[in-house]
Amino acid sequence: MTDKATQIAQLLAPTVASLGVELLGIEYLPAPGSATLRVYIDVPAAELDATAEGEQPRSVGIEDCEAVSREISAQLDVEDPISGNYTLEVSSPGIDRPLFALDHYRRFAGETAKVGLKLPHEGRRRLQGEIVGVEGEQVVFAIDGARFAVPFSNIDKARIVPDWAALGFAPEKPGKAAPGKLAPGKVAPGKSRPAKDKPSKPDASKK
Prior knowledge:
single chain; 6-stranded mixed beta sheet; 207 residues
């Protein structure tokens, strides 16, 4: 995350946690005339880990996104960390889940990720490969059968690359069974507004 996104995440995390969900991370996208503040929330990892075998884990829904949007909109109006107009979006991570923390890479080891780097590393500015794991402050990927370690501090953005065939959204790969479909993330976008204006109630829609 950028320094601004990290600052806002630290500000909002306790409020999000008080609503029974976890703040995964924030994307702050400045643009001329208006910025976008995208907040990702999920069920706390500890709650998912405690889910009994065979039980369906709780998932983030529209109601969670709306509740978080209302609360953090009010907090942002008071704290005023963003000058000028911005659009607030609150979303579950969806199937192309963004990765913000080292723990996210540990949790999703074995999955394929698409990564953008802040600075070129060993001749690469972008990469796509399987997450092998985390070693110290480095994330290790497997790319074309070779090991590729990247300093976590040099990762700008990263997302899981869904196996569309396994999820049932693409033709099934030969010899591979396709489990049930997984719904995309829910999102509750807020209206574009001056940061100090009191926001109206956001409309909920799917991503």
